[in-house]
Amino acid sequence: MTGAILAGMGVGLSPVRAEVFRVKPSQPLPAAHKHSGNAESEKQTLRSAVSAVAHYLEELSEKAGETSAEIFEALKMLLEDEDLFETAAAQIDEGWSAATSFILAVDEFGELLAGDAAFEERVADLRDLAKRVAAHIHGIHLGLDLPATGRYVLVGEDFSPADTAQFTNAVVGVVTIKGGPTSHTAIICRSKSIPAVVSCPAAEDLVDGQIVLVDPVGDRVVVDGDESMATKTISFVAKSIEPIIPVRANIGSLSDAVSAATTAANGVGLFRTELLYLSAHSMPSISEQAKSYTEILKAAPEGPIVVRTIDAGSDKPVPFLKMEHEENPALGVRGYRLIQDHRQFILDQLASLEVARKESGREVWVMAPMIATAQEALEFAALARAAGEFKVGVMVETPSIVMALADLANQLDFISVGTNDLSQYLFAADRMNPSLGALLNPWQPALIRALAKIATDSAAGNLSSGVCGESASDPAFAVVLAGLGFKSVSASMSQVGAVRTALSSVSLDQAKAVAAEALDATTAEEAKSRVLAALANL
Ligand code: PEP
Ligand code: MG
């Protein structure tokens, strides 16, 4: 397969050429089996295996950098969750062995959380931990056995936090068959500046010893390719102190707010409130909510703070909000649709945010997720205005609201585009399905044209428009967004600096010319390469 081009999704900006190192599958775990009769001693075995793996996570967390340490702490909490243990204990009472029971319990949790990118990735991590618990019980070694010296491109299905913690200095590039832009592999490679291509199904055929070029800017791996074939990166050089439009940060917790304040972000463009409640079993009171929102608002970077009301649904179950099981949760009762059965919670959130706004003295904007009609948007705006002194807006994530923006003219303060969901619904492509990565690529011309319409209709209707989906974390794409007419972008924290630099390197007219190139393209590849060429020629 010399010269073969394997398409995937790139992470990072520089290419690397090195030898393939395939991660070997470890010794298989014993198949599901029953225990020999003593349920109590089986539960003891499980408790001590869970604490051994929790201890192992603590060690990894101490060794890891900041990005991973947080993930390890979150995983440790999930692993030691008492409900999870009780679910496993019930399986032990049914006769299943400690190891099998724990895997079954994690499967049950996984089904509950199925359907949402951020959560499914964490469930995949938890499944990996369940294997570690089982391996501990059976005395099986689960290391990756990576070389300590040399230069290798690591190739495997996907890498869990425990795997990435074992990366040695010899790992200079990474290719995964599965995993998407929010996979742990992508997060870690981005934070460690290791060039990677994820969601690359054809990498299945790569073998040890082959030389590959990992070309993240080109979203591809080239077998036997040399570095001259790599897609050119743009190195943006800031020409002004301030970017042409404000760059805000996406956050989901107090520690995110604290970290975001260390970046040059102008406020927060998306505070995902549901992330605070994923393991809450009882509904937080208004005063509890107000306390945590106040802390977060106080810690957040200077500038406005855009808070999204809860975006839970049967795909992201928040334990205290009871939800029906749905066959197709992405199309079900999620986001603002929770108003049907959980109106009070949304009202409480708004009331708590008003308390926090006053306590912190911050400028708070509130928006609702998954709005499908102008009527829903106006209903939410009325609720939010009655609750406090907020700027009020909605997320644009469904094709139907894209077509209805003109009906909102002069009636909202702002809109914010969630391109992750907008791509999913525009292309009818499950955002978690790694085989559909190409349709979810933000450079798809149909998405860019939808974005152009959103920016134009928002400007005509006097609605300030921003983009807070992952696409805004790509510096070149952020220039396109500014050129299309968006008034702000919100990026993941690690990308705030790069996006700001890109948006400080061009004038608004230049950004418009760059966006025009993207609008003329008929394929995602053409859109991206025309934009990169236009940026290189500025
Ligand atoms: C989006 O859909 O782009 C978005 C920002 O929301 P989330 O990723 O939380 O669904
Ligand atoms: Mg969304």
Walkthrough of the structure:
The protein has helices at 39-63, 66-79, 82-93, 98-113, 117-138, 161-164, 184-192, 254-260, 286-299, 339-360, 374-387, 399-402, 419-426, 445-460, 475-484, 496-504, 508-520, 524-536; strands at residues 5-7, 9-11, 16-22, 152-156, 171-176, 196-198, 211-215, 220-223, 247-251, 268-272, 305-308, 364-368, 391-396, 414-417, 464-467, 488-492. It is of the alpha/beta class and 538 residues long. The protein is globular and about 70 Å long. Helix 8 (254-260) runs parallel beside helix 9. Residues 270, 272, 311, 397, 418-421, 468-469 line the site of phosphoenolpyruvate. Residues 369, 397, 418, 420-421 line the site of magnesium ion (MG).
Map the helices and strands:
Layout: E1 5-7, E2 9-11, E3 16-22, H1 39-63, H2 66-79, H3 82-93, H4 98-113, H5 117-138, E4 152-156, H6 161-164, E5 171-176, H7 184-192, E6 196-198, E7 211-215, E8 220-223, E9 247-251, H8 254-260, E10 268-272, H9 286-299, E11 305-308, H10 339-360, E12 364-368, H11 374-387, E13 391-396, H12 399-402, E14 414-417, H13 419-426, H14 445-460, E15 464-467, H15 475-484, E16 488-492, H16 496-504, H17 508-520, H18 524-536
Parallel strand pairs: 3-4, 4-5, 5-6, 9-10, 9-16, 10-11, 11-12, 12-13, 13-14, 14-15, 15-16
Antiparallel strand pairs: 1-8, 2-6, 3-7, 7-8
Helix pairs in contact: 1-2, 1-3, 1-5, 3-4, 4-5, 8-9, 9-10, 15-16, 15-17, 17-18
Bound molecules: phosphoenolpyruvate (PEP) and magnesium ion.
What binds here, in terms of ligands, is: phosphoenolpyruvate, magnesium ion
Share of residues in strands: 5-15%
Task: Provide the helix percentage.
Answer: 40-55%
Number of strands: 16
Low-confidence parts: none
Q: For the terminal residues, how far apart are their CA atoms?
A: 37 Å
